Amino acid sequence: MKLKTLLAKHKSALISRWVDAIVETYPSETAKFLKSKKDQFSNPVGHTIVAETKNLFDQVLEGVDREKVTPFLDRIIRIRAIQEFTPSQAISFVFSLKYIIREVVGPEIDTEDLDQELVDLEATLDFMALVAFDIYMSCREQVYDIRAKEVQQNAFLLLKRANLLVEKPGPKPEDS
Amino acid sequence: MDTKPEFKPGNFLYAGKASALETVGLANPRDWSPTDDDWKLPADWKGIVREGMAERLQRFRSFKLFMDICVRCGACADKCHFFIGSGDPKNMPVLRAELIRSIYRGEMKTAGKILGKLAGGRKLTEDVIKEWFYYFYQCTECRRCSVFCPYGIDTAEITIIAREILNLLGTNIDWIASPVANCFMTGNHLGLKPHTFKENIEYLVDDIEEYAGVRIEPTFNRKGAEILFVTPSGDVFAEPGIYTLMGYLMLFEHIGLDYTWSTYASEGGNFGFFTSHEMMKRLNAKMYAESKRLGVKWILGGECGHMWRVVHQYMDTLNGPADWLEQPVSPLTGTRFENAASTKMVHITEFTADLIKNNKLKLDPSQNDHIIPTFHDSCNTSRGMGMLEEPRYVLNNVCNNFVDMAPQVIRENTFCCGSGSGLNAGEYLEMRFRGGLPRANAVKRVHEDHGVNMLSCVCAIDRAVFPALMDYWVPGVGVCGVSELVANALVMEGQGEREYNLRGEENPSYKPPAEDEASAEAGEEGEE
Ligand code: SF4
Ligand code: SF4
């Protein structure tokens, strides 16, 4: 518990380092933009990263619950899943928090003898990474599903006229 | 500038098919793929590029200016949806332009030829062509960057020229080349033959009868009609475009318009615009040719984006003057469309807005009460032709719940759908999701804050690509053309119960006839 108090105390430094770590997975010109522009419409990616790392950090303090953490992770990963990242690059940001914690509060962990708590917390982050991987996979599957659906929509009437589609709900013959 | 793009599934478009290129006489037809090491460029490809650039620097003053005057102030840098969504710095408009500007300096300007990199120049290599192919097909020619450039530099025009030069080498994409070939041979992108085109519309006529209880008899290729109606062919076969087309049919029936469809000028879209100025002209010509053959007075055009950019900015110069046509006057309201004085062509949304303004439509907007629509300004109708008020005016009259998105992302600041200018291919979905991210993000805001559940638009490419974009980024938001919402609200003469919408779904806003109420009231009156 002491570790979490410690993390809470250093919350803003930890979050800001975490944001940096995510933003730095992009080329440097982009990283600059992602961090500087605050408007949610002009900079949706940067805005999402900042907002969701805060939410995720709170989750880490609370103890990660799959259902609760999913929407926050989803908003970041949904973006990375369609950008130029490999799967591991897309979700590696979850692990970065481990190193950041060691960097920022490492000495205090040593002096306060919080090693066991740190091991437990890292296990929580590992769990969060697994959830992240599930989300990544579901985003990718969605891309394939949507692609298949779009092919149908693009030729909808031709397929329908050729009786190649399942009928949509509508008035049944006896109604008309 | 020196890292090579890596072509991976999802981030490149398939190469133009040899057969399509042959059909319209485009250069260097061959089988190839962007993932091949050898792109099989013509033997003298460098000479072709240099000559192609030189010729265009002469022909297009804008291109020459845009090559010379950029001061690299960076105002445009973060305005491109592809940069914002992909995070790839070469999608900053200034760097996109630099891809070709550096060759201009290195190959065409004396200082650059001698000083090379020092003067910001570089030499032509095959990798440059690969990079052009990668990034000039990551620009939707949307012009958003130009709104923010203090010099008015329009990177869209640079992309247009770059793609033209790529076409001289046969380095083009199938999603553009095949529609161009189909359009040239049969009149529309999918290559629907005249009878199929007609049968599709007749099928929709049957659906209208089934769902709205009115029988409509459209005419095809009818000589002597007052108006020729041309719409993008996506409205004839794709979902949800077909419901927009049903909307046109019902609107014209409602006002008794004397118009005809053409099975030859059966495409308003013009992918020639994404190929070359010459190809744009060839494909555009059929609209005027058909208007002459049929002897109509003027042309009414359906909901489309780039079709309107071509009509508005180029048609009169390319294929005009169409002096057999008259300046469009609405037969219902007498309104003279001054803005169409040269092109003789009116946008359906302008036409509808004028009808509403003059009380020519019987409307029951409560039929759309279950719909909370927002509106996407297509880059082409907003930045390309300045149509900003009309769609909003129409929406506010046919719906009770219209909500606009944030001011920084609508009207001339609109974010592109991310799939325009011929990039709406299935194999490019991931790239399109990147480009469409800023738009989807703004929709998400109004979806969460105001319960918006419908993204309306006046562009066929939007209608084709937004369902996928919404499914991924903002599930729960549907997509429709403005004319579909108009038709929902129309009170047609002799119509049946509007229990179902044009999609054949139960209409949640349907109110059963007030018979009980009416008789109850009558009863009360009787008692009094
Ligand atoms: S025209 Fe549009 S897509 Fe092209 S660089 Fe400018 S903002 Fe980007
Ligand atoms: S805003 Fe205009 S002048 Fe400034 S970098 Fe962009 S294109 Fe160049």
Written overview of the protein:
The complex is a heterodimer of chains A (about 180) and B (about 525). In chain A, helix 2 packs across helix 4 (about 45-60) and helix 4 packs antiparallel against helix 5 (about 65-80). The mean pLDDT of chain A is about 90. In chain A, about 75% of the residues lie in helices and about 0% in strands. Chain A is elongated and about 75 Å long. By secondary structure, chain A is mostly helical. Chain B has about 525 residues and is mainly α. Chain B has 3 domains: about 20-170, Fumarate Reductase Iron-sulfur Protein, Chain B, domain 2 (Orthogonal Bundle); about 185-355, Glutathione S-transferase Yfyf (Class Pi), Chain A, domain 2 (Up-down Bundle); about 365-490, Rossmann fold (3-Layer(aba) Sandwich). In chain B, about 45% of the residues lie in helices and about 5% in strands. In chain B, helix 15 links the parallel strand 3 and strand 4 (about 345). Chain B starts with 17 loop residues before the first helix and ends with a helix. Classes of the chains: A mainly alpha (about 180), B mainly alpha (about 525). At the A-B interface, helix 3, helix 8 and helix 9 of A face helix 4, helix 11, helix 12, helix 19 and helix 20 of B. The structure holds iron/sulfur cluster (SF4) (2 copies). One iron/sulfur cluster binds near residues 82, 93, 139, 140 and 142 of chain B. One iron/sulfur cluster binds near residues 80, 82, 141 and 142 of chain B.
Give a topology summary.
The complex is a heterodimer of chains A (176) and B (528).
Chain A: H1 2-9, H2 11-23, H3 28-36, H4 44-62, H5 66-80, H6 87-91, H7 93-112, H8 115-154, H9 156-161
Helix pairs in contact in A: 2-4, 2-7, 4-5, 5-8, 7-8
Chain B: H1 18-23, H2 45-59, H3 61-68, H4 81-86, H5 93-108, H6 110-115, H7 126-136, H8 144-148, H9 155-168, H10 174-186, H11 194-212, E1 227-230, H12 234-237, H13 241-255, E2 259-261, H14 277-294, E3 298-301, H15 306-319, E4 345-347, H16 348-357, E5 373-376, H17 379-382, H18 389-398, H19 429-435, H20 437-450, E6 454-457, H21 460-473, E7 478-481, H22 482-489, H23 515-527
Parallel strand pairs in B: 1-2, 1-3, 3-4, 5-6, 6-7
Helix pairs in contact in B: 2-3, 2-9, 3-9, 5-9, 7-9, 11-13, 13-22, 14-15, 16-18, 18-22
The structure holds iron/sulfur cluster (2 copies).
